Amino acid sequence: MSKLKEYKEISIEEIKEVDEFRTFIPENNMYDKIKEDIAKNGIKVPLIVNQNYELINGYTRLKIAKELGIKKVPVAVYETTDRADEYDLLVSTNLTQRQLSKAQALALIEKAVEEKTKILKKNQNSENNPKEAKVERVPVQLSESQNKKIQSLTDLRNAVKEELKKYNVKVDDRALDYYIRIKENAPWLTDYILKGKLGIYPAYSIYTKLQEMGLLDAVAKLPPYERNTLLTDGRKIILDERKDLLEEIVNHRMAVSQAINKLKTEEKLQRSKKKPRAKEEEENENEDEGEEGETIDREDNESDEEYDLVGEWKKANEEEKEEEAKQQLTPQLNGNAQVVTQSQKEFLQELDRLGSYARIPIQIVNTFNEKGFFEIPDRSIIARVGVRLYVINEDALRDLEQGKSERWKELVNLLSKADLIVPDENGIYTVMWRLLCKCQ
Q1: pLDDT, tens digit, for every residue of 337-366?
Q2: CA nearest neighbour of 204 among 184, 225, 181, 230
Q3: 22/3 Cα distance (integer angstroms)
Q4: Which residues face 50 on adjacent strands?
Q5: What Pfam families does UniProt report for this protein, alphabetically (predicted)?
């Protein structure tokens, strides 16, 4: 069992970071506030290190100290016997120093039990294999009353329950059973519990719904940003068992934000069929006020509703006909991103801006005014971003799929607003082709 040896101040150069401890706890979600406080008042809570100055707890404070140029930090030095002992110390200090929910505490304790079990198995295998050097560490203690190898989920459950009791964390048996089941079949979901993004019961509901629809593995393989949005802002898609929308998402034919807006639109249409229009408008106003406090950070005007392209162009034609007839434009047109807005003036200005050196030939303007249409280049893609329609160069989209985005920075910024493209960690974009209209 670990024992406090002393408090002292040491150089940050003496502190040794341990990968398994650094990644064990998610970064504190109050990072900026902590940094501001440390910049003003210094580090008041000592970092936790062992006798070899290996850092057990305090990675956020160490990172901030380095960023602020702090050379020495206060530490609490503990005498520890082995890694398992240090995991116990890591858990106990996090439970006392951080404001964790019961679900987060359970996830933290279970994760520590899992790591200590790995150490126990490794030690036992070494003892049973005379060819391997024995590890000079005492046997792992999962708790004071338990010292046995975990071989089944029942043993895991009992071990976690003992640890919960040791740390005086009260979690009901059903919540514990649900968590163990999630851990067994969807371990990636437990990270959301540990980070405080999901409670145990919501996580279990998501797990069971996805399993029933046969989409558990598919959702696990989504790009991190898309999966995070789905499990937080878009969890109603899962809980309502909208398999149609989920299949569009996992097949990269629809962004999560688009699916969320589609679901909202459908719900509003359903309500409009049942209630008088005036009453529904009043409810929609109330709903909009309530949504201001939600964490969904999306443009309100992004949806999958039908867009009256012909109607908007006709309206623009009537409003700007006289003014546009006077404009003199250079007769050059290239294949860069082009835009169709709600007025001809905006249309031409936006096309000019996004197309760099692009100009709309006067012949096209005249044709548009006289006949109500004009021809667009081959390999053009129409996309909606907010209330505007854009004509996109298909070759540019193909470049993004191959990671060639340097040339198309403005296009990337434009399409990212509506989640029409989703990047991976290597800068290669997934294009949501299902949301685009290809001109052939």
Answers
A1: 444 434 555 555 554 444 433 445 566 666
A2: 181
A3: 21
A4: 78
A5: ParB_N (PF02195), Ssol_1539-like_2nd (PF22445)
Count of positions (residues) in the chain? 440
User: So what's the pLDDT on residue 25?
Assistant: 79
Cα–Cα dist 220/37, whole Å: 37
Integer Cα distance of 336 and 2 in angstroms: 65
Tokens of 44: 């008041």
Taking the CA atoms of the chain, what radius of gyration do you get in angstroms? 29
Provide the pLDDT for residue 151. Answer: 55
CA distance 4 to 153: 34
3-state DSSP percent of the chain in helix, strand and coil, to 5: 55, 10, 35
* pTM metric for this prediction: 0.55
Q: Could you tell me the sign of the dihedral formed by the alpha carbons of 290, 292, 294, 300, in that order?
A: positive
Question: Could you tell me the two tokens for 30?
Answer: 């109050």
- Say how far apart CA 24 and CA 26 lie, in whole Å: 7
Q: Please, how many CA atoms are within 13 Å of residue 34, restricted to the half-sphere of its CB?
A: 19
pLDDT value at 397 more than 50: yes
pLDDT on residue 429: 81
Residue type, 318: E
Q: What is the average pLDDT value for the chain, to the nearest integer?
A: 76
Domain limits, the chain:
3-80, 213-305, 309-439
Residue 232 near residue 239, CB atoms below 8 Å: no
pLDDT at 107 over 60: yes
Pick left, alpha or beta for residue 396 (phi over 0 → left; psi -120 to 50 → alpha; otherwise beta).
Answer: alpha
Find which of 205-209, 292-296, 307-311, 388-392 is predicted with most confidence, using mean pLDDT.
205-209
- Given this model, what pLDDT does residue 426 score? 66
Specify the DSSP element, H or E, that contains 388.
strand 388-393
Q: Name the helix (H) or strand (E) containing 381.
A: strand 380-385
Copy the structure tokens of residue 68: 């602020």
Indicate the pairing of strand 72-79 with strand 47-50. Answer: parallel
Q: Are strands 380-385 and 429-431 parallel, antiparallel or unpaired?
A: unpaired
- The amino acid present at 186, given as its one-letter code, is A
CA pair distance 421, 46, nearest whole angstrom: 44
Domain 3-80 annotated CATH 3.90.1530.10: yes
Judge whether 96 and 89 are in contact, CB under 8 Å: no
